[in-house]
Amino acid sequence: MSIKKKLLAVAAAGALTAATAVPAMALENEFHGMFKFFTYQTNFFNGSTFATGAAAQAHLKRGANSGLFAEQRARLQYIAKANDDLKLVTHFELDSRFGGVTGGYKGTTGNDAGNLDADQLTLETKNVYLDFNCPITGTNVKAGIQPWADSYKSLFLLADMTGVYATKKFDPLTVSLGWFRFNDQDAAGDQDPGKKTADLIVLDGKYAVTKDLTVGVNYYNVQNDASATSPAFELLHMVGANAAAKFGPAAVDVFAGYQFGDFNKTSNRDISAYIAGTTGKVKAGPGSVNFAAIYLSGEGNTTTGDRGDFQTISGPTTYFNPANMWLLIRNGQAVNSSTSVLGTDNTVGGRGLWGIFAGYEGTVNKLFYNANVGYAETAHARSAVEKKSLGTEVNAQVGYKLYDNLTASVAAAYLLLGDGLGGKSGQVISGFGVIDATNPYMANVQLSYVF
């Protein structure tokens, strides 16, 4: 055998040895995502997530002035799937307003990519987590930066957080246990990890009584040693129950929860607050009637004494999408302009909230439509003259399915402000209301693409 042939034989044998030494893996790559484009004509929204609380209310002072702006959001998701029991999920987001936002969205440096010549760093991390089924116990485990939503229609918390979440099914019972750390920082600045932290512990159980009835119980525990502002409390226990039932043409969810704990241990201030609500949908004619009602307890004096107002980890991470509002409660379809006349704080600065909402929705071939009305008040006034009425909103939306993955729609909303947000001096809610404010309105055109 020639030297050349010997070298080829040795190389082939080496390659075969290396190939057999490496385990075979057929990695499956999945790509998903969405793109939304909005253009608004409005006297309220300003195309920025910074429009919350008092800053948002400043727009009501503009009288009849109205602005036209456009914004967009894209989300890109890549999943590296080894098999049905093991995958890595990554999810990223890009936000822009046409013309740009000086300073960027959400406190980022520079402008966003909507300005002239576009070049900016705008990629945001939403999720990076490992999702696997334990081969020993059959438990599903998610570890990393992941989304989590509470059992109260996201009125307590809906956010992307770092943590570990395990779910095990014992048909008909499903049990979940999770630990999330949403703050790990020493206020003194020495960045010593694990000493001054804020953690959320979750224990959730759901039991399928029948195919039409599921009941659940949950316990949330928040221990906050990291910050006195977000959240404001130091220790929170939250226990609650929920149920989802179908009755012929109706599907109804109910939930209730109670909070207790230490608002401030040093000053002996305790927490005693609660939440209750219901959502539902009933088939009627060619479409369905939807309805929702919520109550968040409030507090008249948040400066001293115990706290009776419903506590959340952070205002920007609370939602109530079943309301189907655009101005009174922020809308689940919104992207960068994700705010309302309450900012992002459904507790209205600790005053609590109650509201009722109803609407009708349906589809005709590729056409879809909905119309909604809602009313809300604070649960507790801060003075004898402060008014509790927040307002009454009416809105409507009509859309068309251009392709299987692309829809176009137009929506309009008008809010008749209550005295608490647009009344006389002394009556309006401090930090939220504006004296003799103009009623807010908006109209938008939306393109929505999912893949």
Largest sheet: 18 strands, antiparallel, barrel
- The radius of gyration is 25 Å
Poorly predicted regions are 3-24
Proportion of residues in β-strands: over 45%
Number of strands: 18
The percent range for helix content is: under 10%
Question: Which overall shape is indicated by the principal axes computed on the Cα atoms?
Answer: globular
- The pLDDT mean sits at 89
Distance between the termini: 58 Å
How many helices in DSSP terms? 3
Structural class: mainly beta
The arrangement of helices and strands along the chain is HEHEEEEEEEEEEEEEEEEHE
What does this entry show, briefly?
This protein is mainly β. It has helices at residues 3-21, 53-57, 419-422; strands spanning 28-42, 67-83, 86-97, 123-133, 140-149, 158-170, 173-184, 197-210, 213-224, 235-247, 250-264, 269-284, 287-296, 353-364, 367-377, 389-403, 406-417, 441-450.
Describe the structure.
- The N and C termini lie far apart (58 Å).
- The protein has an 18-stranded antiparallel barrel.
- It has 451 residues and is mainly beta.
- The protein contains three helices and 18 strands.
- It is 6% helix and 51% strand.
- The protein is globular and about 65 Å long.
List its salient traits:
451 residues; mainly beta; 18-stranded antiparallel beta barrel; 3 helices
Helices, strands, pairings?
Blueprint lengths: L2 H19 L6 E15 L10 H5 L9 E17 L2 E12 L25 E11 L6 E10 L8 E13 L2 E12 L12 E14 L2 E12 L10 E13 L2 E15 L4 E16 L2 E10 L56 E12 L2 E11 L11 E15 L2 E12 L1 H4 L18 E10 L1
Antiparallel strand pairs: 1-2, 1-18, 2-3, 3-4, 4-5, 5-6, 6-7, 7-8, 8-9, 9-10, 10-11, 11-12, 12-13, 13-14, 14-15, 15-16, 16-17, 17-18
